[in-house]
């Protein structure tokens, strides 16, 4: 069951950590810590193994995969010896990481007359060629690129026929993430958005996924502060304690922190982090989430949260927590999990958004529970169903 994993942002920290991790685990050089698909509850013959995965992708960066992996090792993200052990295999993957069509810019005012349909066609061609070269059963396209600002609404976003017509005209109808989702679905590939960008979250793209009989999932991988919220907020709700405020400060380094220094991208990210509280508690407590860029932190991040709440007879109380983690090391195993599970969903004939993958996301698509325990139960039942379908 050879399965392609096409990474948008393939030379970035999360993508390279994912590739190094997959190579190391399948060579028995490391344990699959962080990969929930390796837990007994989720092991299934319906899910491709790490050894089944074949990597490729697009990126605007020209930094080689081995060079990027060594940089990550120097910053404490990856073990240096592990990087050297898989360097030859990373070099083999290098030829499958292609320049982003159109330089990653979705044809805004292109002086050469290029339209977004041309860029989409190039992506489709790259995906189909990758599938043919490696005789792949399917390809899962995963967006691990930089966070975009919230998309400007366009009438063509609501209707597939109108969108197809608009993509043949000058100007940018879709943000880059949504253009990739359009191309992936057009090429017959399931799409996963690990970012809070628009991705497949447009009615026209939902229509395309249904037409192509493809699953898609997202959005915004849940790796740190929001992961804790999804555990702690249900605790307050189940104990009938009233949360009066919940504020958090997130300090990020690296490329993600630099991207989120842009106010528009920052707003998109913080919006995805807020949903869990309102959905879990049934009300939105006071408070804000702030994201600051601290270059010195590199690929690590720190979150500090203050929660105030009321107990019996209105007694005021508070809780504080600090989370310090390595973003790429937290995200990479989830990217591998999502690629494997989405491939299994595709093989089983699942179509449209996959709410059962909410366990992995801050802002999951669909009407889903936001407590981590409920999401875990949903995921286990989903994988059990995939196993039954292939038995």
From TrEMBL:
Keywords for the protein's UniProt record, in alphabetical order: Isomerase
Q: Which GO terms describe its molecular function?
A: inositol-3-phosphate synthase activity
- EC assignment: 5.5.1.4
InterPro entries listed in its UniProt record: Myo-inos-1-P_Synthase, Myo-inos-1-P_Synthase_GAPDH, NAD(P)-bd_dom_sf
Q: Which Pfam families match?
A: Inos-1-P_synth (PF01658), NAD_binding_5 (PF07994)
Top-level division of the source organism's lineage: Bacteria
Q: Top EC class per UniProt?
A: isomerase
Which GO BP terms, alphabetically?
inositol biosynthetic process; phospholipid biosynthetic process
In terms of Gene3D superfamilies, this protein maps to: Dihydrodipicolinate Reductase, domain 2, NAD(P)-binding Rossmann-like Domain
Residues forming the Myo-inositol-1-phosphate synthase GAPDH-like domain are 224-328
**Which portions of this protein are annotated as coiled-coil regions?**
none
The similarity comment for this entry is:
Belongs to the myo-inositol 1-phosphate synthase family.
Q: What is this protein called?
A: Myo-inositol-1-phosphate synthase
From which organism does this entry originate?
Answer: Longispora fulva
């Amino acid at each position: 069951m050879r399965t392609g994993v096409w990474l948008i942002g393939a030379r970035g920290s999360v993508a390279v950590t994912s590739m190094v991790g997959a190579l190391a685990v399948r060579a028995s050089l490391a344990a699959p810590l962080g990969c929930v698909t390796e837990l007994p509850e989720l092991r299934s013959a319906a899910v491709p193994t790490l050894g089944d995965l074949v990597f490729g992708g697009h990126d605007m960066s020209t930094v080689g995969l081995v060079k990027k992996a060594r940089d990550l090792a120097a910053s404490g993200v990856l073990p240096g010896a592990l990087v050297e052990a898989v360097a030859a295999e990373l070099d083999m993957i290098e030829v499958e990481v292609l320049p982003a069509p159109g330089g990653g810019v979705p044809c805004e005012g292109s002086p050469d007359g290029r339209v977004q349909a041309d860029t989409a066609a190039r992506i489709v061609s790259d995906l189909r060629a990758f599938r043919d070269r490696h005789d792949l059963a399917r390809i899962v396209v995963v967006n691990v690129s930089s966070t975009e600002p919230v998309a400007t609404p366009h009438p063509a976003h609501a209707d597939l026929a109108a969108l197809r017509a608009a993509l043949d005209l000058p100007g940018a109808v879709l943000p880059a993430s949504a253009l990739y989702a359009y191309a992936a679905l057009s090429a017959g590939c399931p799409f996963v958005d690990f970012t809070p960008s628009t991705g497949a979250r447009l009615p026209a793209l939902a229509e395309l996924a249904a037409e192509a009989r493809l699953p898609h999932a997202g959005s915004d991988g849940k790796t740190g502060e929001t992961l804790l919220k999804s555990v702690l907020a249900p605790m307050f709700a189940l104990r009938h304690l009233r949360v009066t405020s919940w504020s958090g400060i997130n300090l990020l380094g690296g490329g993600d922190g630099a991207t989120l220094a842009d106010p528009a991208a920052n707003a998109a990210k913080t919006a995805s982090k807020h949903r869990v509280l309102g959905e879990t508690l049934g009300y939105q407590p006071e408070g804000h989430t702030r994201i600051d860029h601290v270059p010195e932190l590199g690929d690590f991040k720190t979150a500090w949260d203050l929660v105030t709440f009321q107990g019996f007879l209105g007694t005021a109380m508070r809780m504080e927590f600090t989370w310090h983690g390595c973003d790429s090391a937290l995200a990479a195993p989830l990217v591998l999990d999502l690629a494997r599970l989405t491939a299994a969903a595709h093989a089983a004939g699942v179509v449209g958004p996959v709410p059962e993958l909410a366990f992995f996301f801050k802002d999951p698509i669909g009407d889903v529970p936001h407590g981590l325990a409920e999401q875990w139960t949903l995921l286990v039942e989903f994988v059990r169903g995939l196993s039954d379908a292939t038995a």
